[in-house]
Design brief:
Layout lengths: L1 H9 L2 E6 L1 H6 L7 H6 L1 H7 L4 H4 L7 H16 L7 H9 L3 E6 L5 H5 L6 E3 L2 E8 L7 E3 L1 H10 L20 E5 L9 H17 L4 E6 L10 H10 L4 E5 L14 E4 L3 H7 L1
Parallel strand pairs: 1-2, 1-7, 2-3, 7-8, 8-9
Antiparallel strand pairs: 4-5, 4-6
Bound molecules: zinc ion.
């Protein structure tokens, strides 16, 4: 951790790559007590083991689908994180030239006060809906409707008039989350992608730290592999990986890497 602190201080720029483990450390757990407290009726009826897998269930009606999803969105997107892990991270990087690349979709970086011009959410956002087809490359804020859905649902159904439909074609809307090739990359997504590319171009040959936090094995092609490759290509770059149970690095960049197997919140706290 001393080495990580020293390298962070010395870095000209920091590229943060954040995966699910960061939000888990902040208390956004998808199973256990939190799940049982928020979804007792769905657990009783469908025997879901956790919030995430319940999200894939093919509910018979849209009213029931949105009763489930509105609670899911409210607790993971519009409720503050139980622990201030994102705030700790911000304190470490806010005086540096930084950029965040994340597969998380829970909006916690903005909520913690990160500069939204320095964020790239590659996989969507719980706070956005898109056309189910999709007929156009647009997304829609869902906060007001989601809050009403949670308040007005009865017996695991939202009122029919709250089921969201595309304002352009009238089809049912879906979550703006990447699961297949119907994922809408709207204007904001493309602008963020461009800002991220520019940041990386600017950092070429500089003393950069690639700080990877809680990135699992589901989608290593988005953060982990590019971080390894960019570290390899830039002799001044340093790669750091903080991950509970999965902190490792290829031998080619081992001498310029720092791996910490531990809880992200605790590690950031010590730094
Ligand atoms: Zn449409």
């Amino acid at each position: 951790m001393k080495k990580l602190r020293r390298e962070l201080e010395a870095a000209d720029a920091v590229v943060v790559g954040a995966g699910a483990g960061l939000s888990t450390s902040a208390g956004f757990t998808y199973s256990g007590e939190r799940f049982r407290r928020l979804f007792p009726d769905f657990i009783e009826k469908y025997h879901f083991s956790d919030m995430y897998s319940g999200g894939f269930y093919p509910f018979e009606t849209l009213e029931e689908h949105w009763a489930y999803w509105s609670r899911y969105i409210l607790c993971n997107r519009y409720t503050d994180a139980p622990k201030p892990v994102y705030q700790k991270l911000l304190a470490l990087v806010e005086n540096k030239d930084y950029f965040v690349l994340t597969t998380n979709v829970d909006h916690q970086f903005q909520k913690a006060g990160f500069d939204k011009e320095r964020l790239f959410y590659t996989q969507g956002d719980y706070g956005l809906w898109q056309c189910g087809k999709p007929c156009c490359q647009k997304t829609y804020d869902n906060e007001e409707t989601v809050r009403r859905m949670v308040e007005e649902q009865r017996e695991m159904r939202v009122p029919a008039e709250l089921v969201p439909r595309c304002p352009v074609c009238g089809r049912p809307m879906t979550m703006n989350l990447r699961s297949d090739n119907t994922f809408v990359e709207d204007e904001g997504w493309h602008r963020a992608a461009e800002r991220y590319s520019e940041f990386l171009r600017r950092c070429e040959g500089m003393r950069v730290m690639f700080l990877e936090l809680g990135v699992g094995a589901n989608t290593p092609g988005i953060i982990k592999y590019p971080f390894w490759r960019m570290t390899y290509q830039n002799p001044k770059a340093v790669y750091a990986c903080v991950n509970l149970g999965e902190a490792f690095v290829p031998k080619e960049i081992k001498d310029r890497s720092i791996c910490i197997d531990g809880d992200i919140g605790e590690v950031l706290g010590c730094l």
